[in-house]
Amino acid sequence: MKHPSPRRVAAGVAMVLALCAPAALPVLAQQGPPSASSAPVSTAAVKAQQFTLANGMTLIVLPDRRAPTAVQMLWVRVGSMDEVDGTSGVAHVLEHMLFKGSRMLKPGEFSRRVAALGGVENAFTSRDFTGYYQQIPAGRLEEVMTLEADRFAANQWPDEEFVRELEVVKEERRMRTEDQPRARLGELQNATVFTASPYRRPVVGWMSDLDAMTPDDAREFFRRWYVPANAAVVVVGDVDPDAVHALAQKYYGAIPARAVPPRKPRTEPEQRGIRRVELKAPAEQAYVSLAFRVPQIDPARLEDGDDDPWALLVLSAVLEGYSGARLERALTQGPDRVADSVGAYYGFVGRGPQLFGLYGVPADGKTPEQVEAALRAQIARVAQEGVGEAELARVKTQWKASETYKLDSVMAQARELGSDWVQGLPLGASPRIIARLSAVTAAQVQAVAAKYFGDDQLTVATLRPLPPEKNARARGFAAPAGARH
Amino acid sequence: MQNKTRTFLKTWAAALLAAGCLAAQAAVPIEHWQLPSGARVYLAAVDALPIVDVQIDFDAGSRRDPAGQAGLARATAGMVEKGIRAQGGEPALDENALGEAWADLGAEFDADVSADRTSFTLRTLAEPALLDRAVALAAREIGEPAFPEAIWRRERERLSAAIRESNTKPGTVAGRRFAQAVYGAHPYGFETTEQTLAAIDTAAMRARYESLIVPCRAKLSIVGAVTRAQAEAIATRLLARLPATDAADCAPLPPVPEVEALAAPKEERIPFESAQAHVILGQPGYVRRDPDHFALTLGNYILGGGGFVSRLTEEVREKRGLAYSVYSTFSPRLGAGAFRVAFQTRPDQAADAVKVARDVLEKFVAEGPTEAELQAAKDNLIGGFPLLLDSNRKLLVNVANIAWNELPLDYLDTWTARMNAITVADIKAAFARKLQPQRMVTVVIGGKP
């Protein structure tokens, strides 16, 4: 992420984008179902339109005329998974460098221009994609399209800008990872779950790779991946699709077409046997995270693809989709409760292999092993007893409601459109996703609980807290500064 | 269909932009009235989406915690979500039944606490049957929380464990030390500890709730697809299960002391084994209703509020690569919330970074911004005004701000004009009145002893 969360003090409005949580993000947050049966949603009738420019670039426009604002997002189908060993983190470093100049602009000028337009902006990098956005008064759209097209076509900067910005990125890594034991555990778990898949590397990069990164590493990555056919521009707001299309042709359409480089599959081999890793770090509370290798949806086969991923998605919601759901009730309540907090996630869709995760913080006096056993017992219970119709209906109701709430934010709508494009989901995927979820039966949920949660596809990562008095020694307190890396 | 969706949000913001002067004729879509109970209602009726948002604020923030029971307000709000007692023929709902009931409605309800307020928020679909049930459930949760003692013992264990965990994190330790140093004995500086939690029981929660969560002190902000009549019915029902009050006999609450200015600089350098040092500089700031608010908002944007284009970001991050995140912020409240400059950096360069940040701050307070900087700040904040109002969520924030701080109902209509009127001299004078760089708190956590 380019900036920490922007602050709009006057209005008390803050936006936060995740760099990439160590645990997979709950994808369903962006995939709500259609509105509740009898609720009229006037804007639901307004459909997004997709265009392909002559150079292969994609344009997606969704009018939302509630307010005179608009958001432009540029999505590039390149993330940390497209990196190679030795230059981990370069996708994210490059994201920072996109603010450091272009053919038209000097370092920092991009942000000054956007600010002068009354805009807010930021950028984000994940395993699967890199994105840039500006939210502006709708009348300023052409100006930000000019700016974005210019840096996409011709990002350029002197070496000394790179050297300074790399230090900023290292501080970002220190902040998000090095001083966050649970984030370091997530990094370790990823590196254990995945062997051939590039998902094994952290998005922000290993510190030694950042230390060794050169300006040309970033320039080469830019030349290779920032090609029109590997990018989509998403515009949502008070705009006319045809007018936006004309502007896109004028600014983005002028960028010469180049071939998208071939991507090597780097397929993750099947896991056959449980894996366990541990991390000792300064903390008071232990933490345990279970990651199961599971199937995911095929974006090209929304209607007729395998049922199991949809049932897994329902399973994750039944386990922890609302206050008082199964995991919370079973692990964090009652006189013998084993956990202070628990959670579950399912990756559902992605360019790389997805996981089903369970995690928890042991209660005082309880062990990570007890939490691990209790989490798995809840899956086993679903496998044996199934789930109730009321639970099933409840999670579907929540998805349907969230589909309406989503319409309150142009940012959320733009994020969904861009993310769907990256993943190869068709335009208008949401109602089709909801239809699949609505069709999931209790028996299907029970069946996937029985099928995918054995030992052989499981990786368990455990954080062992170091009491404060031992931290100093374990972390090399007496070592000279800089020896840590 | 598209014309139908062009409702208040749009015409309002567009008219304000076009007008740009105090005489703006824009219709202000905020209606305000008082219920017989004394509760004050603020309504922005926007019907583009079938959603209703409600926020109810009470003067029951953590600033009213007793010193020995710091954390009482937060604990009480947390326990509101842990169950409803049986009342009037309706059954008790435990924490799980309550969670299920909200999920079954596809609605969201929360009880939150800040330094000044206890806030209840409800977001529900506007479909009449769902809205009706959501309001009924929210009214029960607000009016009839059960405060079960066994659940509180469990929650206290969890909170205590979380406090012990947070004590291992340099960021939280820095924030606490800073609050104590800036606020002294003022409740804004109270720290919730295992000891203060141990002194809290459900009897204290009930007593606090009965004295502070009363209809005559409620401020309700409502945004969404409802008419005024519907909003009145919603507001009345939401408070109907609290003890009845009358507008006429609502005694004022005891005043909370003012935050005292710092008499001398304070420096705290605390060794901590971490990859980064956490730095916070600051002092007491100003109260929200201070007339300098607009000058300070613009000035702080220039100093360290404006994301990527502020002086602090330019000097600390862009020119020197010393930090990923560096900012300055005011936190205006009913009392003088703190001004702070904060960043994190590698411990061995913390001293240099502190010097850079302090130099930026001192120079800004001494000299004020340039004309060009002020123009850039106005371009962003005034030009970006529509972005502050382009969703129901953001509108709710603004309506609740007007309600809570008793700002004029035309506050948003006059906002751009008042921002536009601010000069370089205004900002320099306002900063000189509010900030004394020679008497600030400096907290640096990290690095060797």
What does this structure look like?
The complex is a heterodimer of chains A (485) and B (449). Helix content of chain A is 39%, strand content 17%. Chain A is globular, with a radius of gyration of 23 Å. Chain A contains 16 helices and 13 strands. By secondary structure, chain A is an alpha+beta fold. Chain B is an alpha+beta fold and 449 residues long. Residues 1-8 and 11-28 of chain B have low confidence and may be disordered. In chain B, strands 1-2-8-3-7-6 form a six-stranded mixed beta sheet, with helices on both faces. Chain B has a five-stranded mixed beta sheet with strand order 9-13-10-12-11, sandwiched between helices. In chain B, helix 11 (293-305) packs across helix 14 and helix 12 packs antiparallel against helix 13 (350-367).
Rg for CA atoms of chain B? 24 Å
Total number of strands of chain B = 13
Terminal Cα span of chain A: 22 Å
Largest interface: A-B, 99 and 97 residues
Backbone structural class of chain B: alpha+beta
Compact overview of the structure:
The complex is a heterodimer of chains A (485) and B (449). Helices cover 39% and strands 17% of the residues of chain A.
Secondary structure: elements and pairs:
The complex is a heterodimer of chains A (485) and B (449).
Chain A: E1 7-8, E2 13-14, E3 49-52, E4 58-63, E5 69-76, H1 90-97, H2 109-116, E6 120-125, E7 130-137, H3 141-154, H4 159-178, H5 181-193, H6 207-212, H7 215-225, E8 231-237, H8 241-251, E9 275-282, E10 287-293, H9 308-320, H10 326-332, E11 339-346, E12 355-362, H11 368-385, H12 389-405, H13 410-423, H14 429-438, H15 442-451, E13 458-466, H16 468-474
Parallel strand pairs in A: 4-8, 9-13
Antiparallel strand pairs in A: 1-2, 3-4, 5-7, 5-8, 6-7, 10-12, 10-13, 11-12
Chain B: H1 2-5, H2 8-19, E1 30-34, E2 40-45, E3 51-58, H3 72-80, E4 83-84, E5 93-94, H4 95-105, E6 108-113, E7 118-125, H5 128-143, H6 149-166, H7 170-183, H8 194-198, H9 202-212, E8 219-224, H10 228-239, E9 266-270, E10 277-284, H11 293-305, H12 311-318, E11 326-330, E12 338-345, H13 350-367, H14 371-383, H15 392-405, H16 411-420, H17 424-434, E13 441-445
Parallel strand pairs in B: 2-8, 9-13
Antiparallel strand pairs in B: 1-2, 3-7, 3-8, 4-5, 6-7, 10-12, 10-13, 11-12
Helix pairs in contact in B: 3-9, 5-10, 11-14, 11-17, 12-13
